[in-house]
């Protein structure tokens, strides 16, 4: 049976791959894409989302809603130093590609309320929209079937600072509110999970390039800037936390180990803004999330490889593809 989901995204690089997962996997019933401030400029993120919908075959059936253009309290912080513009320099004519008029937060609240207990959300950017939806509708957390969050590290390294992963760092107040809201939450953390098991080294990147489909060329292009950055900081390949988050919702068999944790997020620390404290059950705190600890890494790669092998032609010409 298809899984109804919304992807809440700051679309750049691996967010695009996560959208491809939602768009191409036959198990997925992608109801909407909601946009949140994060990786790169907001309007560029929207262009990247439309570009990805086009590369997936021109999916005008999937509505795009614009959400919060800045974090709840803080100034927006970008990751353009990591991702460039997040599109790999690809572009296309975007005439006539309009987001819906409804605000993403209202759309999330509405879709969850229309079918309580049915909709899953894959949140792969800062959690601003999700926190705003919690404030907007006290029933929102209860109406959502499951929330899959890419964010934080499980007592491990950050990426934007030593302590913090980008999504939680950018909007720590939102992340804190979301973990207190009562969702059924599954977390895909940056370290150790992503760094150990969702990095594609040169051999895997070569296998993707060898497919030579429009989808595989798209993948290679959008990941190129991040690959350069990763190599400069000692990560030997491209990182795929966002696409992994979508994949584990649709294919729980990819998860080899997951454990209950109490997750909370630092908002006041001098050095630790956005740090995720993941308490493993010995500190007297009730679990409020499941944290993925180990996946079938080969299975995840083969899964993406198989999606990218499909010969789908973008209806609009993509310059550079
Ligand atoms: Ca993201």
UniProtKB/TrEMBL annotation:
Keywords: Hydrolase. SUPFAM superfamilies: Nucleoside hydrolase. Pfam families: IU_nuc_hydro (PF01156). The keyword Disulfide bond does not apply. Residues 5-302 form the Inosine/uridine-preferring nucleoside hydrolase domain. InterPro entries: Inosine/uridine_hydrolase_dom (IPR001910), IUN_hydrolase (IPR052775), Ribo_hydro-like (IPR036452). GO terms for molecular function: hydrolase activity, hydrolyzing N-glycosyl compounds. This is Nucleoside hydrolase.
